[in-house]
UniProtKB/TrEMBL annotation:
<dbReference type="InterPro" id="IPR001048">
    <property type="entry name" value="Asp/Glu/Uridylate_kinase"/>
</dbReference>
<dbReference type="InterPro" id="IPR036393">
    <property type="entry name" value="AceGlu_kinase-like_sf"/>
</dbReference>
<feature type="domain" description="Aspartate/glutamate/uridylate kinase">
    <location>
        <begin position="13"/>
        <end position="239"/>
    </location>
</feature>
<dbReference type="GO" id="GO:0016301">
    <property type="term" value="F:kinase activity"/>
</dbReference>
<protein>
    <recommendedName>
        <fullName>aspartate kinase</fullName>
        <ecNumber>2.7.2.4</ecNumber>
    </recommendedName>
</protein>
<comment type="similarity">
    <text>Belongs to the aspartokinase family.</text>
</comment>
<keyword id="KW-0418">Kinase</keyword>
<dbReference type="Pfam" id="PF00696">
    <property type="entry name" value="AA_kinase"/>
</dbReference>
<keyword id="KW-0808">Transferase</keyword>
<keyword id="KW-0067">ATP-binding</keyword>
<keyword id="KW-0547">Nucleotide-binding</keyword>
């Protein structure tokens, strides 16, 4: 056993993630550093803190890139857009130094997360825990820019849009942590987006399967592959509000509530193809590129959930027949059951979600996890 391994075993390590919504102002860095410093002092833990860039910053990089080249190489997109998270990580590290804490930044190429070479939606293949262990040996806090990794040749790769959650769970698995604390501007997973749907309820316990289904269908709150990685490694995801004292709202683990959730993401797009066969082919291409996609069964339909895919460009490059815009998918999930309705655009998606949410959560509704959801198609 190396010295750093022995130390990592002696000291408990907590893994925390703070998304972009935690850094709306520059003052947020100092406030968070103060709270983290208190935790180090009071709990005697070392921390790995995964951070995202500030809200909108990743997309600002994308705009700048597109102004220079409308058709950039994936490797360049990955190299540039992940810098927003690097900036955030360095700002938090410097705020921690001001608090008198030892802290360092481990960027994707230093971290030990090795992916394939699908630069923009890379898949994790292997983790070397040694860089994290060594950094934890020398520092009270290790700050990790979310979404970053490297391929076998050491080239920077991106785990995809909103993938900081995935980084956090991968880091938790690497350091052997039993939990991963994910902080956001909501304290947990609700029965629908609480900023958009009236009456959305906090779900205290959510099963891995339900959380993964919700994010596959576009719920922004957690990254789908993060949920699956946590499930495989038996890591509990604890969702917390991003301001001290960081109250916990939901735990994602083996237990789950049977409440029906309605997934709304106005960036999701359903595409209709002339035949089922063409829809199957398009689905296979999106899926093969690691993009979150669902083959809807109610027709020759494919839903690209979560947005941030340049659909005309992607279809052109991959030589697939362009699908016709079919609306915004809104999906009800209960246990492992799903039912999707198509709304006529972003505005209509809000109304459809509210109606569906009211319907599935109506007083006296049958919440038997085995009851079919198909009746909701008429909601
Ligand atoms: N079912 C849901 N439960 C909670 N939040 C949801 C849900 N669906 C969508 N959201 C949205 O997810 C947002 C949090 O995700 P995100 O903006 O990526 O946060 P962060 O920047 O902290 O990672 C919330 O502000 C909320 O609007
Ligand atoms: N750079 C990432 C940041 C991220 O993952 O965001 P968040 O954790 O706030 O969803 C992105 O915009 O994709």
């Amino acid at each position: 056993m190396t010295g750093s391994e022995a130390t990592a075993h002696r000291r408990p390590v907590a893994v925390l993630k703070f998304g972009g919504s935690s850094f709306r102002t520059l003052a947020s860095y100092g406030q968070l550093a103060e709270a983290l410093s208190r935790r180090v002092a009071e709990d005697g833990t070392r921390l790995v803190v995964v951070v995202s860039g500030r809200p909108g910053e990743t997309e600002q990089f994308r705009e700048r890139l597109n102004q220079v080249n409308r058709h950039p190489e994936d490797e360049t997109v990955a190299g540039l857009l992940t810098l927003a998270d690097t900036v955030g990580a360095q700002l938090l590290a410097t705020a921690l130094h001001r608090e008198g804490r030892t802290a360092t930044v481990l960027a994707g190429h230093q971290l030990g997360l090795v992916t394939d070479s699908a630069f923009m939606w890379a898949r994790l293949e292997h983790t070397d825990p040694e860089p994290l262990r060594a950094a934890l040996h020398d520092n009270e806090v290790v700050v990790v820019p979310g979404g970053q990794a490297a391929d076998k040749q050491g080239r920077p790769t991106w785990l995809g849009k909103n993938s900081s959650d995935l980084s956090a769970v991968a880091v938790a698995a690497a350091v052997g942590a039993g939990a991963c604390e994910i902080h956001s501007d909501v304290d947990g997973i609700y029965s629908s987006d609480p900023h958009l749907v009236t009456g959305a309820q906090l779900l205290a316990e959510v099963s891995y399967n339900t959380a993964a289904l919700m994010s596959l269908y576009g719920a922004k709150v957690l990254h789908r592959r993060a949920v699956r990685l946590a499930q495989r490694n038996r890591i509990e995801i604890v969702c917390r509000y991003n301001r001290a004292p960081f109250p916990a709202g939901s735990v994602i683990g083996s237990a789950g509530s049977s409440v029906a959730a309605v997934v709304l993401n106005q960036r999701s797009t359903a595409l209709r193809y002339p035949t089922d066969e063409l829809a199957d082919q398009a689905f296979a291409v999106f899926h093969g590129a690691n993009i979150d996609v669902v083959r809807l069964t109610s027709g020759p339909l494919v839903a690209i959930t979560g947005g941030f895919v340049d659909l005309p460009e992607f279809q052109r490059r991959n030589g697939i027949v362009p699908g016709e815009y079919a609306g915004v998918p809104v999906t009800a999930v209960r246990g492992s059951q799903v039912a999707t309705k198509l709304a006529d655009g972003e505005e209509d998606a809000l109304h459809v979600s509210q109606r569906l949410h009211d319907y599935v959560n109506r007083p006296g509704a049958d919440v038997d996890p085995n009851a079919p959801l198909l009746e909701m198609q008429g909601a």
